[in-house]
Amino acid sequence: MAKYIFITGGVVSSLGKGVAAASCGALLQSRGYSVHARKFDPYLNIDPGTMSPFQHGEVYVTDDGFETDLDLGYYERFLGIKLSRNDSVSGGRIYWDVLNAERRGDYLGATVQMIPHVSNKIKEYINAPTDTDFVVYEIGGTVGDIEGKIFLESIRQFANDVGRKNVMFVHLTLAPYLEKSGELKTKPTQMSVRELLENGIQADMLIVRSPRMLTVDERAKIGMFCNLPAKNVISGIDVDNIYEIPLAYDAQHVFDIIAQHFDLPCAAGNTDKFQKIKHYLNADLPEVNIGIVGKYFDVPDAYKSLNEALFHAGMQNNVHVKLKKINAETFSADDAVGLDGILVPGGFGTRGVAGKIAAAGYARENRVPYMGICLGMQIAVIEFARNVLGIEDANSTEFSKNCTPVINIMADHDSADMGGTLRLGAYPCVITPGTLAEKVYGSNYISERHRHRYEMDISLEKEFAKHGMIISGRSPDGRLPEIVEIKDHPFFIAGQFHPEFQSSPYSGHPLFNAFIAAAIKYRG
Ligand code: GLN
């Protein structure tokens, strides 16, 4: 049977439970154990697909086309695993399941209650089969949230069902530092652990976020008040880069604490891949400047996977990638000065489209490396149609109803309603021999993840090709353009998909790696 590690958070939100969970998983992997990761989000949305990036940050997409919390991106990246729809489950989805079962009469006339019906449904998800040694399970939100109560109750029951020895509770808290008195305060942590205990859950390990390492005395004090050995109180010290966290945990013997809890042999781990990242971070390397022309910059997490992918590609190319966030709504050529590459990321809605078109045009005319992602491909196609083919009113029907539509909704996914109509998840793409795309991927058959509603109109292919923009990747049935590129340009390529969802910190992603390589070349 798999062993389960549940990660909860207290005191404040945004402590980085996802990265903490991924880091614990990485340490287990470093000792040869296989790890699966999952997350519960107690909120009532069925999934985060309809949530604004301004509120919720990035919506991550799995191979099987599920729109998930961005923490799943951390799990996939850190652990090199592929997750699916049952690995990201919201409160809304649980209630939806329960209420549908009630309507079907599945409960045979019983009064439907939080316990056992909702808690059993949650435990069904926890019990979903896995062939790994461990499942690391993050519970979203903060201890004390009303939505979260039933999840805490369910993991309490689960531990009782499968035996306390098979379950470990890790709690992430905060120890604020009071400048005036020069003290690190432990009371919020004590209260958060007490609140957890009120739900019947005794924390087995605490990770206490703090600006400096906890002292021996502080750990002893927390251990005493919180009913656990001082050695199980870890400092969740602030670091510059998330990939340093597994190393910070390893240095504090987090694996040994886990091993002791589960009666596993202590073992030294191989953390070379994280050491390598740390070494890269501190290395004195040349820089390249990449401009991202987007509009969700006010939320630090809105372009999470994209930022990661560019970071990974920098590592693969031995340069430091400097990102310049360019507000699409105010883009002008001045913004492009000093850039070695221009990237137009995914996006929805008309706001900022004009600036993105101008940015793609700038890259095309000035031979600056360009990479377009999803909307960034549609933008490149519109720009080319307008300024090279001379179709002045070329547009996407997402932005204008009275236009020559070069980007349109396909007849077989033609509802304009939000939710349920997007092309989501992994789709195969066939790459044309002799193209930049083939050189980049080193393959003629790839799979990339999608999240969009509109497509380039393939009937325009010949007209575009005549003027130098070719479709170099398409769906196997030939109906959907997936990659476009400009032939007589050093590097101008755009995909209808989101390659950032498959970038790995250990190998990057072919498209991003090639884009950064082109930027280095452009810089000269
Ligand atoms: N808004 C565009 C569409 O729906 C692009 C979406 C995206 O960039 N993810 O097709």
Reported for the largest beta sheet, the result is: 9 strands, mixed
Percentage of residues in strands? 15-25%
Rounded to an integer in angstroms, the radius of gyration calculated over CA atoms is 25 Å
In spatial order, strands of the major sheet run 13-12-14-15-23-22-21-18-19
Molecular structure report:
This protein is of the alpha/beta class. Helix content is 35%, strand content 23%. It is built from 17 helices and 23 strands. It has helices at residues 17-30, 53-56, 71-79, 91-104, 114-126, 149-162, 187-198, 216-226, 245-251, 254-262, 272-282, 304-316, 353-366, 375-387, 436-441, 461-466, 510-523, and strands at 3-9, 35-41, 60-61, 67-68, 88-90, 134-139, 167-174, 177-178, 183-184, 205-210, 233-237, 287-294, 320-327, 341-344, 370-373, 394-396, 404-409, 423-431, 445-452, 454-456, 469-474, 481-486, 492-495. The protein has a 9-stranded mixed sheet, with helices on both faces. Strands 5-2-6-1-7-10-11 form a 7-stranded parallel sheet, sandwiched between helices. A 3-stranded mixed sheet has the order 16-17-20, with helices on one face. Strand 3 (60-61) and strand 4 (67-68) form a beta hairpin. The longest helix is centred in the N-terminal third of the chain and has 14 residues, at 17-30. The protein is globular and about 75 Å long. The N and C termini lie far apart (56 Å). Mean pLDDT is 94; it is low at 414-419. It binds glutamine (GLN). The site of glutamine has 10 residues, from strand 19. Glutamine (GLN) binds at residues 346-348, 374-375, 398, 451-454.
